[in-house]
Design a protein that fits this description.
- The chain folds into two domains: 8-45 and 164-205; 49-162, no CATH class.
- By secondary structure, the protein is α+β, with helices and mostly antiparallel strands.
- The two termini are 23 Å apart.
- Strands 1, 2, 3, 4, 5 and 10 form a six-stranded antiparallel β-sheet that branches.
- The chain has helices at 8-22, 29-35, 37-41, 90-98, 110-113, 164-205; strands spanning 49-52, 59-62, 69-77, 82-89, 117-118, 120-121, 133-137, 143-148, 151-157, 161-162.
Amino acid sequence: MRNISEPERPRQFIGCLLVVTLMPLAAGCDTMRDSTLTGRLWDPGEINRCLPAPKPNLKLYRTPDDKDVLVTYDELREKNDSIHRRAFFFQPNVHRLEAHKRPKFVSPDKVVELKLIRVAEAGNTNAPVREVIFARISGESQEFTLVWFGAELGPYALPVYVDRGSEIRRALLTPLATLGDVIVVVVIVAVVAGAIVGYGYAAGAGH
């Protein structure tokens, strides 16, 4: 069996060090992005989406003067699977609903505070015949249509949006993550440069 000479051992060690250091560079762009701090921070799995619960318990209430409707439902936050009761007034948010944007929420307690009246569902045989506002709710309660003074408005889907808190947190942490990535790159470059110099020195010592 051939014995490894003393000058060859440092060269083999430095060669292995170079291979290990440069392996991430050969892994591809996607792998490199996923392995960086910034890439992990902006990973889609870290986004906290807010959407209607599978059974959102959708209920609509009208103001006593029939000028607005309060939409209430259960919201699911994907990040931790928590359920929160949400409420928003229809009129100020109609354009946001049409654009599939986050509405301006209010407290669900407005139902009691403003003495709101439950909106009857269209087709309900028990609904008063003189009601001027009716609601048609989809089978899974994910959408609603308002019949308002004979005019049909909708259908409107319940809001799906990204939680502002997660967006702000990621925006604040991005500079730190970028700095961390820069430091990692500098360290890798320094290690590679040192390994190359060491390899050259070891090769020269072997002659």
